[in-house]
Design brief:
CATH topology of the largest domain: Alpha-Beta Plaits
Structural class: alpha+beta
Number of strands: 11
CATH architecture of the largest domain: 2-Layer Sandwich
Strand content: 15-25%
Order of helices and strands: HHHHEHEEHEEEHEEHEEEHH
Radius of gyration: 23 Å
């Protein structure tokens, strides 16, 4: 009975701290404000913006409902614990609620300025030709499946396919509540060791791919980042990727160069030039934010584990499929032998360990 009381007290204490941290009141107010926007007759004139607002409303409602539902469960189990004949049942209920509390607790780590924003991710194949391009496509599938598991939407902004197989590079947007906060520490080099499927000798092969994660920043999100017309070189061209006749026959793809920094971004998968231009501008804005962030971090000389630059020198995770199977994160030491599950999108253990880094 003493074990039950101790666990119950700890459960109530942890939940109360989470409730304070994830205060549902401002979220409810935000839902009201966003819902009011949907009443505007012109709301659906910008489909992309409308979808983003609807997704944000749905995500906020889910979070509020999960906090309120969990609060009811905690109160109910406290009431049940007053009956000594229900000790076994109460312990089972505590275990169930503890798992939900642990899941909700992850969001208390997401206090960064842009953690609540959608994420813009890029995957670039490293040296190694077809092997590396195939590895890049495997990573893209892994993140696609992770998004499906979390009911997040994923849309490709730009893609350069490999000549024989796989992907040279791909940029995509992940829309979901706290998408950037959950995914930002996936930035860095991902290493694969396996038997090569591309030669008859099945030789052991090591491949690398780099993942970059940025928050999607619209103009309203980043008033300090000014994109002047005179600093931009804009090119329109025909998309070489997948798409309908309009995509491939009309110059809908957009390439932007920011002259002062030399940063170049492209967007080509939308059917209309203006949509691609908006995607390219948001991507450029995020890259300029990253440049400024890195500059500030260098001045402070204090990373505190909060940020990892997505460069080739920062290997973060190793995926071994031969001669044994193991996926290991080199920063947190979290590992699993179920490599197939990880490559099928089961990243929750890794991401939870990443979130705790520095907390």
């Amino acid at each position: 009975m003493q074990e039950l009381k101790t666990r119950l007290q700890e459960l109530v204490s942890v939940f109360e701290k989470i409730k304070v941290s994830l205060d549902p009141s401002p979220k409810k107010q935000k839902i009201i404000e966003l819902t009011a926007q949907t009443m505007d007759p012109d709301f659906w004139s910008d489909q992309n913006r409308a979808k983003a607002v609807m997704q944000e409303i749905g995500d906020l409602k889910k979070e509020v409902e999960s906090i309120e539902s969990l609060e009811k469960d905690v109160k109910a189990v406290v009431d049940l614990a007053t009956d000594p004949d229900l000790e076994a049942e109460v312990l089972k209920e505590i275990e169930r609620i503890e798992k939900q509390v642990d899941s909700l607790k992850q969001k208390t780590y997401l206090s960064g300025e842009y953690d609540g924003r959608p994420a813009v991710m890029s995957i670039h194949a490293g040296q190694g030709g077809t092997e590396a391009m195939d590895w890049a496509s495997m990573l893209f599938r892994m993140y696609t499946r992770y998004c499906e598991r979390h009911e997040w939407s994923l849309s490709v902004i730009d893609e350069t396919p490999g000549e024989e197989a796989g992907i040279k590079s791909i940029t995509f947007k992940v829309a979901g509540h706290y998408a950037y906060g959950f995914l930002k520490r996936e930035s860095g080099t991902h290493r694969l060791v396996r038997q090569s499927p591309f030669n008859a000798d099945n030789l052991r092969q090591t491949s690398f791919a780099m993942v970059e994660v940025l928050p999607e920043l619209e103009e309203k999100d980043s008033p300090d980042i000014e994109l002047k017309d005179e600093d931009l070189e804009v090119q329109f061209y025909r998309s070489g990727g997948h798409g309908g006749q309009n995509v491939n026959k009309v110059s809908t793809a957009v390439r932007l160069k920011h002259v002062p920094t030399g940063i170049v971004v492209t967007a080509q998968t939308e059917r209309f030039q203006e949509q691609n231009r908006r995607n390219a501008m948001n991507l450029l804005r995020a890259k300029l934010w990253l440049v400024e962030k890195e500059r500030a971090l260098k001045e402070k000389k204090d990373l505190k584990g909060e940020y990892v630059s997505a460069s080739w020198g920062t290997q973060i995770r190793s995926y071994v499929l031969h001669p044994y199977k193991m996926v290991k994160d080199l920063r947190t030491d979290f590992e699993t032998g179920n490599a197939e599950a990880v490559l099928d999108g089961d990243l929750d253990g890794f991401i939870e360990a990443e979130l705790k880094l520095g907390h």
